[in-house]
Amino acid sequence: MQTTNPFQTILDELGEVKDLLNSMKKEPEIELKKKLYSIKECSEILKLDYQTVRSHILKGNIKAEQIGRFYRINHIDLMDALNEVKSLKYRR
C-alpha cells in the first residue's frame, strides 16, 4: 500500500504562495528603476533647496533628463546623489 503525505497539497500550495510573494517583492525594485522625479521631489528627498538641486543638475553633479522645459531625475541617479549628499551640500 502506497502512503501519501496528507499535507502534500498544502505544501504544494505554500510553495506557490512563496513564489508569488517573492515575485511581488521584486516588483517595486523594477518600478523604481523606471521612476522619474521632478526637481521639487528631489529637493524634498535630498533635503536641499530647489535652487541648489537645480544648480547641481546644471553643473552636471546630478544626472537629469530634460523633457521640454522640465527636468526629470531617474531614481537610480537620485540614489547615487543621495549617497553623496554631504559632498553635494558643501561642494562649491
From TrEMBL:
Family annotation (InterPro entries): HTH_17
Pfam families associated with the record: HTH_17
Domain (Helix-turn-helix) ranges: 36-84
The name this protein goes by in its record: Helix-turn-helix domain-containing protein
